[in-house]
Amino acid sequence: MQRELAPDLVFAATYVGNHDTRLVSNLMDINALPQKYWALGNELNRPVVGNPYGIPVPYAGFTGTIANALRPYPQYLGINPGDEAVGQSTYEGLWTSLQRHYRNGLTLLLAYTWSKNISNSDSWNVGTGGSSGVQNPFNQPAERALAILNVPQNVSLSYAYELPIGKGKRFLNSGSKVMDLLVGGWILGGIQSYASGSPINFGCADTIPGTNNCVRWNFTGSSLLSSAEKTGNGFDPAIDNYFLNPGVSVHQVFVDPEVNPSQGGGYQLGSLSALTPARGYSGIGTSGLIESFNVSKQFLMAEGIKLEIRLELLNAFNRHEFAVPDSSPNDLAFGQVTASQIAPRQLQLTARIRF
């Protein structure tokens, strides 16, 4: 849908939907221990030779564990399927924009996107919390989760305004050439962008013998973000934890589901998804805050030759945007923010000759 609201001012709204298949993935484990044997628990780590369960040695000379003996191809451990491309993703988004084409010295573009991206193929390269492979290779649909590229809200604004001063303009139109050289032709501009953070991955709690998988954590708390972070007021990385409230131990809320094997039970899977709704401070690989302003002017040096000078103020408000905190529950620094990922305010002056 597109509509002109005023002369040279156009509003547009677009629905975008994609379904992608045959994506690079890490979902297949063709030599995984069949799920029916997971109930054996720690017994899977026993040597198969002389085991009390009557599990046969798969071939003469085999000396591995019960888990390896029960693999589909016991002569191998993990089997890399090569260029695996069985992943899928879906994307739905509302793209809106308000654009003013150049008129009376002003050009403007305001854009807002509201979207959701779901995928089962991020397990091959998850950006936070360490690698996170498939949890259950026998249930690939269960790997569908928020995609690492899922940034649900993004608003950006860019503009440029040529000041109405100087020859041919509203003010000081009849001034001298020196006056026009000094005050005419100045252009003010800026770029401002604000985006949601990317989903966070908490890595692997454990793995099951004979299966190259990533057993995820069980989360027993009420929120993946601490109260200090959720309120957004007064979060201090020097004293506050991004995920945990004061007095709460990490393994009170992030529980390894593999407690049963140590008690004689079978292996189980965790409840957390590969990527959770908990988010860092910015989109993956980019800053979520961009605020830059500039002023520029062109000087006519000769016919067809112009000198342009441009002064830019980057991160104009000198904001501090935290990097993604440590998100591996087994780390001593879990939940701690240790770095900033946006450069401090910078002033940049450039000059160029255009011809």
Provide structural commentary:
About 25% of the residues are buried. The protein is mainly beta and about 350 residues long. A hairpin with a 2-residue loop joins strand 3 (about 85-105) and strand 4. The protein contains 4 helices and 14 strands. It has helices spanning about 65-70, 175-185, 225-230, 250-255, and strands spanning about 1-5, 10-25, 85-105, 105-120, 145, 155-160, 185-195, 200, 220, 255, 275-280, 290-300, 305-315, 345-355. It is about 5% helix and about 35% strand. It is elongated. Strands 1, 2, 3, 4, 5, 6, 7, 12, 13 and 14 form a 10-stranded antiparallel β-sheet that branches.
List the helices and strands and how they pair.
Layout: E1 2-6, E2 9-23, H1 66-69, E3 87-103, E4 106-119, E5 145-146, E6 153-162, H2 177-183, E7 186-195, E8 199-200, E9 218-219, H3 227-231, H4 250-253, E10 254-255, E11 276-279, E12 289-302, E13 305-314, E14 346-354
Antiparallel strand pairs: 1-2, 2-3, 3-4, 4-5, 4-6, 6-7, 7-12, 8-11, 9-10, 12-13, 13-14
